[in-house]
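User: Hand in any protein.

Assistant:
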Amino acid sequence: MKRRTVKPADSSPERKDRKAASSLKQQGSQSGRRLKKGLLIAVAVCILVPVVYKVIPDFIQAVIYTYRLHVPFFVDLGRPADLSLNHTINMYLTSEEGISLGVWHTVPESRWKEAQGKDLIWYQNTLNDGNPVFLYMHGNTGWSKTPSSLGAVFLCRVISNTAVKLLEQGIVFDGVILEGAFNSERQYMPFYVFGWYYMTFPGIKNLFRFLWEQKKVVFPTEQNLKKMKSPILFLHSEDDHLVPIEVARRTYEVAAKAQGKDRVKLVTFDGSLGYLHNGLYRDPKLPGVLKEFVNSL
């Protein structure tokens, strides 16, 4: 039988020096990687911070007015006929340079059959057919449930603040309908009211706190109302959770003082109905309210 010989562990100084050198090399390699990572993060921050502050204005507009969000999803709002609205066409109005407003031009019920298959020019000509023209500013997403059986032409889906530019240019509509209108001069306008879906992410609210602290969200409704010359109908729910009813009443008073109470009307809906800010279209009395307003002009 052969005897196995076990070599003693190498405990020489050279062995220890090699281990120490290897350990130092590993530590140096790790430190180098951390340093590179830190430098990359610093460079990224230096680049991203200016970029973020550059795009913030566009970000604010996109969140507040939600013009990039189409509700319902996967529906081309530029094709009303796809929604069985054969008496409606999509149009664009230019209120100022660089601003294009998408609207739905709906003709009265008396012309529904005639409207089927007609082009944009035909619809534009109907604006001069003697029927009253109303600007219905119902909100920033989706489409309105405005009844078009009132013998009037409705221009819907207009962004409220920018649409006033049309009025400032001397374009007078037969009537303007404001549904749940904001008024930043009468109420605190926190940014997260409009971007609540972004605020669900941890830390986002604190990150963009400067947006509302610096009052970046502005709805100069009172200033615009003082310039308007068209009759106005305010529609507001008493349980509106974004615009308190008290704010709506003060806004109405400003408009009534500018034009007279015979040209401005406020219709409120009982808070027990649960319409909040976006549910007025569900009220069965709404068509009658609109018809009364049309007939009063």
User: Anything to note?
Assistant: The beta strands are 88-96, 99-106, 133-137, 153-156, 175-179, 232-237, 264-269. Residues 157-162 have pLDDT under 50 and may be disordered. DSSP finds nine helices and seven strands in the chain. The CA atoms of residues 191 and 208 lie 9 Å apart.
